[in-house]
Amino acid sequence: MADRRAQLVGRVRGLLSEALGSARGRLTAARAELETGQDRLTRVRRAAATVPQRVGAERDRRLAEIDSRYSTRIAELVRRAAAAAEREAPGAASADWSRWAPTPTGRADTPGAVRVGTVRIPGAEPVPALVPLLDAGHVHLTGEHRAACDAVVSALLLRSIGRTDPGTVRLIGYDPEHLGGGLAGFAPLGTAGLLTFVGPGGLARLLDDLVEQIRRINETVLAGEHSSLRELAAATGRRPEPWRVAVLLGGDELSRHERGQLDRVVRTGAACGVHLVVRGIPLPDDPTVQRVLVARGDVRIGGPTGLPVRLDPPPPATLVTETCRQVASTVNAGPAPTPFTELLPPPGEMWQEDSSTALVAPIGEGPSGRPVLLTLGDYPPHALIGGPSGTGKTNLIFAWIGALASRYSPAELEFYLLDFKEGVSFARFAQGRRDPSWLPHMRLVGINVNTDREFGLALLRFLAEELRRRADAAKQHEVTKLAELRAVDPKGHWPRIVAVVDEFQMLLAGRDVVAREAADLLEDLARRGRSQGIHLVLASQDVRGIEALWGRPALVAQFTLRIALPKALRILAERNDAAQSLPRHHAVINAESGMVEGNEIARIPSASEWETWSELQHRLWRMRPPDAAPARLFDGDAIPRLADAPDFRALAPARQPGGPRGPVALLGEIIDVQARSAALRLPRAPGRNLAVLGTRVDEACAVLDAVGRSLARQHEPGSARFSIACLDPDADHAARSLYEDLADDAAWYDEETVPELVAETAEALAGPGTPTTPHYLLLYAVDAAAGRLGARVGRRTGLEHLRQILHDGPERRTHVLAWWRGVARMRNDLGGPASRTDQIGAWVALDVQGGELGSSLYPGTGGPDWYPRPWRGLFFDRAVHRTGQTIIPYGLPR
Ligand SMILES: Nc1ncnc2c1ncn2[C@@H]1O[C@H](COP(=O)(O)OP(=O)(O)OP(=O)(O)O)[C@@H](O)[C@H]1O
């Protein structure tokens, strides 16, 4: 048992030691493992301790790299943004106030956005912060920082004004709390009507007005052709409407109506140049509304989440007022003239129009930017132009003539022009000494005709004759109107005729025969000219011009086209005072006899300056047809020359013995359209003598000189006898010059020898037969010889001889062409105050009153309507005249 026990114990011991051994083994292994683990841990820990260092360095490296890339990118973006801003807002739109000055864009360009400050980008160069306004939209300011808001408003407005032409931005202020205080610096604009304030309570009216402007612009200016003024300007180069900027600075709650109108303006204003700058009134959301939040320390463009901005300082007060003063004074000085070329077709398209039915040409630009047209045709047929001196009548006439002459060729249109006031501006239409060009359409230019109303009459007579010729032709072709006549007679020369008479009232002044005949002719031309293409354009600076017509309602009624320059009176209809408020260089054009409904306002370009006009005239002159002749220039201040007179040049010696059968003595130029000479026929008939009457030495000598030279031109040398007697030393020079030029055909007599001349001539006449050689006695101041001639020579006195020559001479080719220094003196020489004067068949009166020429010298009683004036004479030939004819003596040869 013990053994068993021992055995068991042994076994147990064995098992135990075995277990112990294995436990010890396992412990050792575990210890070794632990050591290894701890070792690894130490190593791992060591290694782990070095990791953050490495990672941080890498991270920093990466971050630095990103930073550098980011700053370069930002710098690049900032640079680009700044360059874009510079392009978008150059000059006055963004310049610092210290060097700010207006830099308007062109008429057709849009002004672009303007700067109010800089965008805040930490660490970067500042980028201009721009706000678009004109042609873009509206600006809505919110925030309590009033001074900063005011600075933004001032900057916006001043920069906008500086980017546009003076006068093209109109401000309307509504500032019920501060009564305009917010816009005080802009006050000088008010003097030019560019700033108006609407008082408290006026907001509804202001908004109504803006809505109405938008409606009008959409309807009449954009007229469905353009979607905005900006687009119209880009397409046409014209900007017919100003920008209207309403600055609304607070106020009460809006009424429903006001809100509705405000919404309309917001939605539709920008396209029509109507803009809002608003603070203190909510604006609806719209893409055109730019929000600017102005809180203390935080300014943002584009609302609370928009770009942070550092505002610029406000513009200095003096800069604002000075700029506004400048703008106002430019505007008050009137608009810069539009170029004359706007009235003309392109150079390659001149003379393309057909005048069969009417003459149509632009005269200027209307408020909507469209050309305002003037028409002359069946309706309206004639025009009246009125305007006080200096308002641009002459200029308007130039502009109209230019616009017509560039469209219609001389075959389509002819001009006749008469200027009753002093001045030579119209002379340039005719050929001049300085400028050889002339306007090919111009047939006649009469200048300085102020005292020569006869010239006006002559023009009217000429036109009346042309009217008759046209009416006859029309009748022959069985048509009634010019258009029809031209259609049936395409080869005929039937241009439309435009006759312009400036200061026409001179023609109708007075109650004499000239005025009466002129008014009758005018009436006839006005009535019947319309259908025959003869158009009258009458201009007057003086209300009397119109008064002169007013007495003839039938005449006035034909002048349905009325053109009134600023401050013109009575040109338009009675209650139409549109001309009173016209700006400079504008005109009211009215083709409805002046009725208010017909008013059209046109801005007239400057056309009358020498360079402007002559460029066109030279172009048209170079285009003239080969047979074109210059216009006849009648200058009332000029003295015509006999050598230039067509009638004188046409004279030639007659081939038959005794010279021409009825030689003509030329006396001077007739005041008429064709520059003809007044001619006295000297056939062999009783009374064919001439008396020149008056004390004016030069004029009397000039008449006798022309008489002598023109007669001499009709005779071969040696075939006529000229006896020249000069009895006034003052006439000696002129008489001698004629004597010398007539050479061998002339004999000289003086006070001593004149009795012999008359005695010898009278004796020759007493003999039988008619001498073959004509004898012309040119007696200068013959009355001075009355004493000498009163003495007897043989059986009779010299005066008796003279009377006999006057009486019997003409039938026998002996003519007395004598100057008496008064009518009474002549009568004395003829036999006394009651003596007959029928041997004086013709006379030229110089400084002799009409009344003195009555009884037996002139038909009827009381003598002719003749008021003496320098270098003019009244010629009357009882064989051919019913009334006297005014002549201009030819100048004496030097
Ligand atoms: N549309 C215009 N644009 C620019 N200048 C103009 C215009 N119209 C007139 N002027 C200028 O104004 C001045 C007066 O014009 P103009 O001689 O035509 O006036 P007027 O009415 O004919 O005067 P008057 O009857 O005294 O001759 C001129 O110097 C002319 O150049």
From TrEMBL:
It comes from the Bacteria. ATP binds at G387, P388, S389, G390, T391, G392, K393, T394. Residues 369-574 form the FtsK domain. The keyword NADP does not apply. CDD domains: TrwB_TraG_TraD_VirD4. Keywords: ATP-binding, Nucleotide-binding. One of its GO terms (molecular function) is DNA binding. Residues 88-113 are annotated as: Disordered. Gene3D superfamilies: P-loop containing nucleotide triphosphate hydrolases. PANTHER family: DNA TRANSLOCASE FTSK, SPORULATION PROTEIN RELATED. This is FtsK/SpoIIIE family protein. It comes from Micromonospora pallida.
